[in-house]
Amino acid sequence: MSSGDIDKPGLLGGRLQVAREMSFVGRQKELRLFRTAMNGGGCSVLYVHGPGGIGKSALLRRFAHEAMLAARQVFVVDGRTLEPSTAAFEAEAEQVLRDANTVLLIDNFEHMQGLEGWLRERFLPRVPLGALVVIAGRYPPDMRWQADPGWAGALEVLPLRDLQITDAQALMDSSGVPAELREPLLAFAGGHPLALLLGAAVAVKDGGASKRWMPNHDVVATLLDQLVGELPSATHRYALEICAHAYMTTEDLLRAALPEEAACMFLWLRRLPFVESSSLGLFPHDVVREVLEADLRWRDPEGYAVMHDRIHAHLADRVRAASDADVPGAVAALLYLHRDNRALADFHGGHDEGEFHEDVLREEDVGTLLRVATTTEGEASADSAAFWARRQPEAFRVYRRTETGQVVAFSAWLPLTEIDEEEVAADPIVAGAWAHARATTPLRAGEYLAVSRLWALPPFRGLSPVMDLIQWRIIGNCLRAERMAWSYIAIRHPSHAWMEHLRHYDMRDITEQPRLGDHAYTLFAHDWRAVPAQAWLGQVSRLPDTTSPEDPGAAPAELAVLSQAEFSEEVRKALRQLSRPDELSASPLVRTRLIAERAGQDPATALGDLLRQAIDDLREDPRAVKSYRALSATFLRGTPTQEMAAERLGLPFTTYRRHLTAGIERVFADLWHRELYGTDTSSAHS
Description:
This protein is an alpha/beta fold. It is about 50% helix and about 15% strand. InterPro entries: AAA_16, P-loop_NTPase.
């Protein structure tokens, strides 16, 4: 069909064309390539591809306008209305084979993708030189175009991306979007033309819209139809929803939720026109991500929560299992699941490795460390940095610009098992951490505390991509740690935003502020025995608006941190109360890590089960059989008095007491070990 047939003045098509011309913005690079090709200075075939709604049809209409202004005959073939056969196509497009002054525009090519090989091998070679063909579709061209040397100079491939920010703003101007709606509309739609236009049409009509505007369900549904379309099955939809929720999707991640279908679903995802690939995995176009997320949360909030929990559990396991170098990326992927939580910092990560990267400290970096510390925090801080670089060089990480290698920041994670007078004298911040720990809940045998220090050039001290990397490293250290009692983060003059950010992560600022030279530092502390890593992660992982104040899981209580002597005394009491669950429920032991690890079970029941298990375990040790019998007779069989228990066992009372005391000590030692090290005791602290 000739483009000029419906665009003449006096027809509705002419009026529509004028309105479209007025709203067309950007695409200057694509227009330059088209003009060059039309004037004989470039290719003969332009292949434009991009996801739905990205503006391919609008660009082709602009190409048609440009061609008519240049007195070229324009013909349009639309894949949505044409039968996908070679005969139908040739009948519609035959004019381009006879006239070198013709421009042929093929739109919605994805509907006739099966003709691509025939078009490349049979039809296009018959087009006269001087004619120009533009193909526009959702999918990129087959690799055989580029593998054929004959097409090297004749084909130009144009991937169509989002509009630049200035062009997106110009499109909102042409749509009459008021100033107060631009920020939320851009946050939702970015530079995606269809999302911008649909959002603008709805937002402009909504007289009550404000900076908190969000697209309604009609906008979301329309975008889903246009961008995603019909999906082959519920499994395909679920795979796509996982891809939208996760930062990057790998086959391994899909396997966590779709164990039988992961491989084929990953192959299907990577072929979708709105899904792109990076070195880290697959990710959808931002607008597709937004509308899929919004639709699922509205349509099936319970299903959304289940999916979130599965992905969260998989990514949390990945943080714990990651190699040291992969820890920041693994934490970033985990935290990305909470991007809608406004209490968290903005997610600055890109779809690849990013502008900055983390490195280990080398000897040649120490001079730079001292210069950065001196410049930003003074000589006292530099002296402290030098001390720790000698003392624990392995604790340091260096942050460099990826492109130039320029060092912009340093961090150190200092694990400390006992007070060392030299360390305390060299670093008032470490001294302050020890003073706080000793004054609150001191370390128990086998535990340690860790102090985080950082030195960054001024442009990178606030919430920034570099600070993201540093905080991901800190969080990774905390989630991977074993036997860590306290962690401390030292910040010089933290801003209000930093204070709120760290408090959200349950890092509480303490009153005492240690000083290094002329500067005071705020210490943010967390007791990992009171709120262990799993409980802490559960608080962070909660979806907004998915728990009520009455929900017992909404705000887990802090755990009790008992000294060894206190723990021993409570175990003895609990053994005596073993047959009385109401009294067991009042034991401080039900608020220890020991019981917290048995989530989902009544605490008093869990404590009773643990005590019985600890007694029963002694039966398997030939050296402890006598202790097992004494404990069993005394606490499991409900014998009223110890004298009667000794009589039942046929033992002198002093012998019975010796076996009983030894058995209680064995039970205490077992439970104390679990309290300190958890159920899995194979890992060493990091």
